[in-house]
Amino acid sequence: MEERTDRWRILFALLLGVIMGPIDASIVNINLPLIAESFSVPAYRIAWVSISYLLMLSTLLLPFGRLGDMFGFKKIYLSGVLIFTFLSLICALSPSFLFLVISRGLQAIGAGITMSLAPAIITAIFPARERGRALGFNALSVALGLAIGPSLGGFLGSLFGWRSIFLVNIPIGILTFALNLKLLPKDGGKRETEFDFLGASLSFASLLSFLLFITEAPKFGFISPFLLLLFLSLLLIYALIKWEGITTAPLIDLSLFRNRVFSLALSSAFLNYLTQYILILSLPFYLQRILHYSAKDAGAVMTAFPLTTLFIAPFAGWISDRIGHRLPALLGLSLCTLSAFLFPFLAPNEEKISIIWRLSLYGFGTGLFQSPNNSAVMGAVGRERLGIGGGMLATVRNMGMVFGLGTASAVISWRLKIYSLLKLENAFFLSLKDAFLSAGLISSLTVILAIANFFPIDKRGNLVKMINSKGR
Questions:
Q1: Which residues of 29-60 are buried (b: 16+ CB within 10 A; e: fewer)?
Q2: Helices 7-29 and 73-92 meet at what angle, rounded to 10?
Q3: Which residue among 177, 193, 328, 397 has the highest number of C-beta atoms inside a 10 angstrom radius?
């Protein structure tokens, strides 16, 4: 593709497709209690409505970038919009819980296509002088989608039922398809490239095996046939690492992990999103089942987190450009951890403002952490690997979300079983408090990683003095 005079209109059309993915990821979470009630599904199992979506998204972001190279960005992008829109209708019509879980996984194929190809198309149509600003709008659309989702989902769920949260995608999807069909330039000559089918399959199978283990084993006991899933997952991960090291067109560039800053920043991002999604799964059940909020009110409360992040992130990026990423990231993760440890102290009759300021504190820490950390990841890769670095960052983000949902589901299931055996009346509330506590403990690991990143070490293991380096 070449530079276009109508490139900003193309950007708007692209971002309509991009924003649908994060909206759909966050719009569903606030309605999980309603969906669980509709299908008579326990709280720990309803997480699979979101897990199936994020699992597919995590494993497809990198492969779809290659498909765009092979078959043309316009064709693949438009097919993604169609898939997402059609599967939204199928999700809304789901007759059973299993049908909805499968439909959500297939819906993520469309979201994965739009989210993975948009940065590539933007890079192709924008000149270097405008590319950073255009990619910034792409990142902003993802953050905006996550911020809009909870309140929009709560509003629709309360007034029209949970099926309406999928139906709202249909008119947006039709408009997005029409605009991109008209505006996106035709695909030119495509370079031949290999597609790592085996790598994509091993990645998906290893994630699925591990998630089945952590979500189902607590219910039946860890010494059970489900233990085999853990061994299978570890075996598949080993096979994936070996394969990615020898294939000529790997999905994952393992050499990047030799860079200490890249590895620590990517690990911090994974654990931060994992912590987030423990809270994001558990809090709607606390708000609706314990405090008896409507989905609308619960959605409004949950919006405090992404809205605060949305406002703080640009400021944090500006700060990191001047003093480096290490200090803002460490401070941000420390605030996230402090906030996470405050959630277990919530009472069964907590005031709304008490929940909102906890969420705002977590959002403040997340906003302070994410922009500097993303800058650290992208700054640690060469210019010729920016696409790979961005793809890995997006993949790790979604994997953190998946494992966060799985961890919350596992903790709630395991502790609920124990408290029920003890015949405690508030067993479900106590299991939610334990899920909150697990978020705090995991978030503590991110602080340790940030401290390790704060003191850079050279190849000989010696501490590097940061003189005139801004701590970068």
A1: bbbbbbbbebbebebbbbbbbbbbbbbbbbbb
A2: 30
A3: 328
8 A C-beta contact, residue 373 and residue 325: yes
CA distance 380 to 260: 9
Rounded Cα distance between 116 and 387, Å, is: 10
Model-level pTM? 0.79
pLDDT, tens digit, 9 for 90 and up, residues 234-244: 899 899 888 88
**Mapping DSSP to helix (H, G, I), strand (E, B) and coil, where does residue 432 land?**
helix
Q: Is residue 469 helix, strand or coil? A: coil
Q: CB of 295 within 8 A of CB of 31? A: yes
Q: Give the Cα separation of 189 and 109 in Å (integer).
A: 25
Q: What pLDDT was estimated at residue 22? A: 80
Top pLDDT among 69 and 352 is at 352
DSSP secondary structure letter of residue 95: -
Tally of CA atoms within 13 A in the half-sphere of 131 that contains its CB:
14
Q: Which domains does the chain have, with CATH numbers?
A: 1-185 (1.20.1250.20), 196-248 (no CATH), 253-472 (1.20.1250.20)
For residue 465, CA distances in Å to 108, 331, 462, 469, 471 come to 46, 21, 9, 9, 10
Provide the 10 A C-beta neighbour count for residue 302.
26
Longest CA–CA span in the chain (Å) reads: 69
- Per-residue pLDDT tens digits for 311-339: 887 777 777 767 777 788 889 999 999 99
What lies within 8 Å, CB to CB, of 346 at 6+ separation is: 286, 354, 355, 358, 433, 436
Q: Which region among 32-46, 211-225, 274-288, 310-324 has the lowest average model confidence (pLDDT)?
A: 211-225
Q: Determine the Cα–Cα distance for residues 14 and 77; give it in Å rounded to an integer.
A: 9
Give me the pLDDT at residue 466, please. Answer: 45
